[in-house]
Structures are given as C-alpha cells and as structure tokens.
Amino acid sequence: MSSSHDSLLIEGTNGTLQIDDIRFIVAEFELDPSEADDNSTELEEFESEPFFVDLPFVDEALSLANNQIQAGLYDELEFEVENLDFEDEEEGEDEEHQTLADSIRSEFADWPNEASMVIVGTFTPTDGDPQSFTVFAEAEIEIEREFNPPLEVTENNIQQVVSVRINPTTWFKQSDGSVIDLTQ
C-alpha cells in the first residue's frame, strides 16, 4: 500500500529508513474570517469534516484547497491531526466519523481506533537486510497560524495559499544521528 509519489530515504548511523507512505487523519481544518474583510457578503468560518490525507514527499505542499472555501480574507488557520475520537463526539459526528473510518479500513484493515497515522516502509540496518513495516501511530499535531495581514483567498489562488508544508524527516531522525527502527 504505497502512495503514488516517491519514497523518502533517511540515512542514519544505524541504517536506512525508507518511508513509502504516510497517511493521517485531519480531524480539524478551519479558516477564520477576518473582521477587516469589507466584502458585501457575510464571510463565514470554514470548517471541514475530518478527512484522510496521503502526505506528499519531495518538495510538495499538502493542498488543503476545498471548493467550499469562500473567497475572502482570513486571519487564522487551524489544522489538527488526531484520531477519530468516537467517545467525545458531538451530535451528528458519529455517522461522518464512521464513514471515514470505514473508508480508511478498506485500505488498512488493521487500523486501530486510537490511531491517527500510518507509516509504511522498510528499515535496512547497517550490514543487514531490509525489513518491511506498517506502523500505526497515535499522533497529535496542531498547527495554528494567524495571518497579519489577512490571507486573501480567491478562486484563482486557492490551490497555492491553502496548503501546508510538512517535513517528516525530523520525526524519524534522532539527535545521535541514528534513525528510528520502525520494525520494532
């Protein structure tokens, strides 16, 4: 189960980690409208339903563009990676969370409820043979960014301005120069 993009190779003193796929649940993605927007139409906060992301490698930004985002000025972005918390659901979330969980499990049958991320690849120890792994992680990542001046979203620039760059190399490289062996 690998994505349609290149692998990420991370060399360490203990071997090489090859990441073929990283996917995660975006539990929250919001854009808050700016009060400075003089647009004649009332701009509402944009909040997406949870969705599953295939993280691009090799200098690609993760596009969060959505055709439901209104053109206008926004002064804050919130982006959260976390599991689908079936125990803390608000009214109406149960069905959308279950639909997403079913979709994820159609690709990753062993996906545990507490996981928010899957990492697929191989670890090749120094002077050893490659060993495959699929690791489910309970990762919580929260990005909040205020924009001053406000971020302007138009129909023409939405693909460029509504994107996030994530470099997962730092997640797997340790301070002593080794890489994390995800086969253990």
UniProtKB/TrEMBL annotation:
The protein, known as: Uncharacterized protein
Source organism (scientific name): Fodinibius salipaludis
